[in-house]
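This protein record is not my work; I was only asked to verify it. Take the sequence as given and treat only the tokens as open to question. I have pasted the whole thing underneath without changing anything:
***
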Amino acid sequence: MLTHILLDLDGTLVDSAPGILGSLRRAIDEVGLDVPESALGTHLLGPPMYRSLPPILGEQGAADVVPVYRRIYGDEDGWLASTPYPGVEELLRELDEAGVTIALATSKAESSARKIVAHHGWADLFTETVGDTPAGDRPTKGAVVGEALRRLGHPDGDAAPLMVGDRRYDVAGAAEHGLRCAGAGWGYAEPGELEAAGAAVVHASADELRAAILG
């Protein structure tokens, strides 16, 4: 029986692309950069923006845009544009009822993650909510997973958590700590991405994941 689970947020629990990409578009326009819409897709979602943006904006462009993006997304209203995927509410409630320890492990800023979790009424379901820091102290998913494990007391053996996420970064971050990762196939991954990364299994929906874990 599964006792601990680490859940990604964007693309796994909620569809937050409209808020993230909309805030990013506003930030780029405010800074005054000329970036086509085709460059701003869900392929950017997963790592922190300060890692995703330099390849398309350059180092200086990213340095200029990221603080503006953080203000629009985290301090203003961008974070509100997130919609739970079908079946996620039931998944979380039934995991909690089954006594599974649930932790959030996201590369999003931890402050924004906490606001989203609270906004959807889930704060009491998560033992820990772990994300990146304002200083960027957890720039990789492996660093986020490591911090989540530390806060949970490093459960191992039969208590080792299952990671659930929608991008290859989740699979790699879990593997860095010897954990299995179940792919959230309903999220932002490209076709075949999770399988190629080594996900233990890829589920097509949150309902399918719930059935696999809880029966």
About this structure: DSSP finds nine helices and eight strands in the chain. The radius of gyration is 17 Å. The chain has a mean pLDDT of 97.
